[in-house]
Write a structure and sequence with these properties.
eight-stranded mixed barrel; 8 helices; 301 residues; single chain; TIM Barrel; alpha/beta
């Protein structure tokens, strides 16, 4: 068994910690400097809000929620080359989360559960348990479930699939991922596709960080698949192919969703206006379609 620290503030964790977990997206995403604080530790990445893929997805209110949203996140993480784990409250949300995977016909991920009972025991079916947290914040661990610092403590199995065996030799640094993403115009264009003009810069920053995380995951799969040393050109070519495939799949799903929306909208308009007002229904549908697509309203509408 091992003990792992996690916190929204990396500097609160002792620098000599042997195992640490931190966030890669959301308000409390760790910087590269934060990760570099623990050069010799086993480092576990967590997606707090589901914007990026990582080793762990945080399923709780305010994060990846409701529990059913864990299923598509796990599928995304697996597609990016991860063997993911879901963090979830043992008593309240673990069972519903497992049932969501069964209902979807998707194999369960690994499980890191939270139960602040102060006991360093891992329940059957899990690989880790968070057993202590700061609680009253007085800096004193005067109860078994208190850590005495601004961090949580978890007991972890000796082997954690998807975490152990994935060393830094197989992972790209954030700087490398950012450089390659920028070269391919993925970083900015991918983020800005999802950013509206009236959204604040904090959201833009989170979108950019999420885009870096997504590209980093894709690049990690390229590195994992290689059998021989690849030149920069080969790596970039393979990245292009993966990005193109993902974008094509996204566009297909988007068009299917739009087609379903158009059909539902057409049925609703024609039901309201009736069969005697087909011309008016056609004009309204044309106008609505133009507005949805961002075009102009047809003349005569």
């Amino acid at each position: 068994m091992r003990v792992m620290y996690d916190s929204v503030n990396a500097s609160a964790i002792p620098a000599n910690a042997a195992m640490v977990a931190g966030y890669v997206d959301g308000r409390y995403a760790w910087s590269q400097k934060d990760w570099d604080r623990f050069p010799n530790a086993v480092r576990v990445t967590i997606s707090a809000v589901g914007a990026a893929v990582a080793m762990v997805g945080d399923v709780e209110r305010g994060c990846i929620w409701p529990v059913a949203n864990a299923v598509p996140w796990v599928l995304r993480a697996r597609a990016a080359g991860y063997d993911p784990t879901i963090y979830v409250n043992e008593l309240n949300d673990w069972r519903p989360c497992r049932e969501a995977f069964r209902a979807a016909g998707v194999p369960e991920p690994h499980w890191w559960v939270a139960n602040y009972d102060g006991r360093q025991t891992i329940p059957a079916g899990a690989v880790a348990k968070q057993y202590a947290h700061p609680h009253d914040g007085d800096g004193v661990a005067d109860r078994p479930w208190e850590t005495g610092g601004h961090y949580d403590l978890s007991v972890v199995a000796d082997y954690w699939p998807g975490v152990d065996g994935q060393g830094d030799d197989d992972m790209l640094t954030s700087e490398q991922a950012t450089q390659l993403a920028t070269m391919h115009q993925v970083l900015v264009s991918g983020a800005l596709r999802n950013v509206k003009l009236n959204q604040d810069l904090g959201f833009v920053r989170e979108s950019l960080l999420a885009e870096i995380g997504g590209v980093k995951a894709l690049l990690a799969t390229v590195v994992a698949e290689q059998k021989d040393d690849l030149s920069d050109t080969d790596v970039l070519a393979r990245l292009d192919a993966k990005l193109d495939a993902q974008w094509a799949e996204f566009e297909q799903r988007l068009e299917e969703a739009r087609a379903a929306d158009r059909a539902a909208m057409e049925d609703a308009v024609r039901d309201v206006l009736g069969n005697d007002n087909t011309d008016q229904a056609d004009r309204l549908l044309d106008a609505l379609a133009a507005r949805i697509s961002g075009g102009t309203t047809p003349k005569g509408s």
